[in-house]
Specification:
Layout lengths: L8 H50 L3 H11 L18 E7 L28 E8 L5 E7 L1
Antiparallel strand pairs: 1-2, 2-3
Length: 146
């Protein structure tokens, strides 16, 4: 009489082969998930570091920011509020007077467009602020009124 209890060697071998075939894509999926988590953690860290720098700048006195903007001279030159060059994860701060007329960074006349809008022109004292991280796509921009 032949015993039917347990698995045969062929059945065990087939089960092992199937598990091996299934485990490869499962492990790749887990690895992709781990990499995604790491990337998300890095992006979150950069986001909050930039947000903290922006809050630090917004807490500064307006006249100090205006002076730094005038010293920088352009919206494409990093201001003195930026981290020193060569710093790891350097945060750059750009400051400029802002005019909502045709060219926002060129203040020519307080009412060039004739709209009598307080947000256009020199008299509004509107300051553009941008904080970014060097070699990164992350940045924050805002406007600050005196």
């Amino acid at each position: 009489m032949i015993s039917t209890a347990g698995f045969s060697y062929v059945e065990v071998l087939i089960a092992i082969v199937l598990l091996a075939i299934i485990l490869v894509p499962a492990m790749q999926a887990i690895q992709t998930g781990i990499k995604g988590t790491e990337m998300h953690a890095l992006a979150t860290d950069q986001h909050y570091a930039l947000l903290g720098k922006m809050e630090e700048i917004l807490a500064e006195n307006y006249d100090s920011l205006l002076s730094a903007a005038e010293t920088a001279g352009s919206n494409t030159v990093a201001s003195s509020y930026s981290d020193p060059a060569g710093t790891a994860d350097r945060k750059r701060v750009y400051l400029a007077l802002y005019d909502a007329d045709a060219d926002p960074f060129v203040i020519q006349d307080a009412n060039t467009d004739g709209d009598n809008n307080i947000y256009t022109g020199e008299t509004a004292d509107l300051l553009w602020i941008r904080v970014d991280q060097e070699n990164s796509p992350y940045a924050f921009e805002t406007l600050r009124l005196r």
